[in-house]
Design brief:
globular; about 190 residues; five-stranded parallel β-sheet; alpha/beta; about 45% helix; four-stranded mixed β-sheet; 7 helices
Length: about 190
């Protein structure tokens, strides 16, 4: 697949590392960035908004989108499916926008093959202990899900070596500035 004229940023990291908070800061600091909104079969959390944080859809609707070729990539994370709608991403890239995909490690590898000029940024926790503390403090997972997310995090961190950049999220503002510096340097 041919890379369009915009910039495609793949933004990954383990659950609880602060990807959503970082994205909010990035969009505040640079409103020209375009955030792709993923689809998921996961249940909506209390503080989330459909169409803003994710498009929350049924497994049947997810399968229908897959059958119609409307999903750029998808992955199973824990018990749920996550995917990237294809049409808006291609539209934004053709318009020359910088598009950020918040994407799981599995999906990032698929997208990198389809869009070889994309830039992959892995958001790393300062330590696994801090990541566990963050997950426990947010209180959105039961113990089994929390243990599963930590195991997935270990595997994702091992795969971070395949990313173009690794940003440690120890301080949100500093991490956001580092990501913005990376985006600015692309294609210079």
């Amino acid at each position: 697949m041919e890379q369009k004229k915009g910039k495609l940023i793949l933004f990954s990291g383990p659950s609880g590392v602060g990807k959503d908070t970082l994205l909010d800061i990035l969009l505040r600091k640079d409103p020209t960035l375009q955030k792709s909104i993923s689809i998921t079969t996961r249940l909506k959390r209390e503080n989330e908004r459909d169409g803003v944080d994710y498009y929350f859809i049924t497994p049947d609707d997810f399968e229908a989108m897959l059958d119609q070729g409307d999903v750029l990539e998808f992955a199973k994370y824990g018990k749920n499916l996550y995917g990237t709608p294809k049409k808006p991403v291609d539209k934004w890239l053709s318009e020359g926008k910088t598009v950020i995909l918040k994407i799981e490690v599995q999906g990032a590898a698929k997208i990198k093959k389809m869009y070889p000029l994309s830039t992959a940024i892995f958001i790393m926790p300062p330590s696994l202990e801090i990541l566990e503390h963050r997950l426990r403090c947010r209180g959105t997972e039961d113990e089994d899900d929390l243990v599963r997310r930590l195991e997935i995090a270990r595997c994702e961190i091992e795969k971070s070596r395949g990313y173009d950049y690794i940003v440690i999220n120890d301080d949100l503002e500093e991490a956001a500035d580092e990501v913005l510096d990376i985006i600015e340097k692309i294609d210079k």
